Amino acid sequence: MLRGIGRAVGWYRGEGWRTQLHVAVRALTCPVDEIVAAVPDGSRVVEVGCGHGLLAVSIAVARPGVHVRAVDVDSRKLGAARRAARRAGVEERVQVEEVGPRWQPPEHTAEVVLVGDVLYLLDDRELRRWLRGVHRALVPEGRLVVKELDAAPGRRTQLATAQERWAVERLGITVGATVRFRAAHRWRELLESAGFEVHGMSQPRAGWHRHVLFVARRPAVEGLHAGSWSA
Ligand SMILES: C[S@@+](CC[C@H](N)C(=O)[O-])C[C@H]1O[C@@H](n2cnc3c(N)ncnc32)[C@H](O)[C@@H]1O
Fold first, then answer.
1. C-alpha distances in angstroms, 221 versus 14, 51, 107, 230?
2. Is the distance from CB of 184 to CB of 150 less than 8 angstroms?
3. Which residues line ligand 1 (CB under 6 A)?
């Protein structure tokens, strides 16, 4: 695990110290390997809210057949994401783009949509709208991979909420209007009510946070629920 973190940090050597620190903490506290494992090789992936590109680059490095379109609203981070892809030698398979806050892939175009620690920035109404849009954007049997913090009641959730409020509302490190962590069962309800089949749910450990990772799928035929689709 530490080797993986060291390698990831190396992709950001040459960036400012804030970016290097941010990415090092992120690599320590995010279950990157579990997220990579949820992405099938050979797929076209859209990562929404890629930030400095840690997940996009990790996936491209580990999965030689994957192409990632990595988008974010925050232009400040995207230069580092492009340079990280170049240093890792995957710039031909990682396309980094700035988008507007309501951007979603066009209908029926995405095989995999990945979103890692972005949806807590949306309130329930916006989140439902976002999930319906992604459902439309996926091809039949396309996959949505969602990684969020798990808001089980307790100190960890209070700490994570305070930390993120600080990052979003005070420091402006993350662009967002709200901080709204949700428990795993709530995620399942939201995904299913937007028409997804949930095929995998895990609670990987990384750093001091509790995480929840969902693999959901747009059904082949709407209303028909097929058998399990392993991650
Ligand atoms: C906590 S960071 C996570 C970055 C990255 N996914 C990761 O796991 O390392 C959240 C990112 O979501 C981006 N973001 C916020 N709202 C967004 C939106 N509506 N569309 C795309 N990106 C958004 C922010 O700019 C920020 O880079």
1. 48, 34, 16, 18
2. yes
3. 26, 30, 48-51, 54-55, 72-74, 77, 101, 116-118, 121, 174-176
Spell 116-140 as b/e; 16+ CB within 10 A means b.
Answer: bbbbbbbeeebbeebbebbbbbbee
Phi/psi for 6 (5° steps) reads -60, -40
Q: If phi over 0 gives left and psi between -120 and 50 gives alpha, with beta otherwise, what is residue 132? A: alpha
141-165 pLDDT, tens digit per residue, is 999 999 999 887 666 767 777 777 7
CA 117: distance to chain centroid?
6
The answer to whether 209 and 160 have CB atoms below 8 angstroms apart is: yes
* Domains of the chain and CATH, by start: 2-217 (3.40.50.150)
Which ligand 1 atom lies nearest to the CA of residue 103?
Answer: 20
215-225 pLDDT, tens digit per residue, is 999 998 766 55
Q: Ligand 1 atom 27: the closest Cα is on which residue?
A: 51
Nearest CA to ligand 1 atom 11: 49
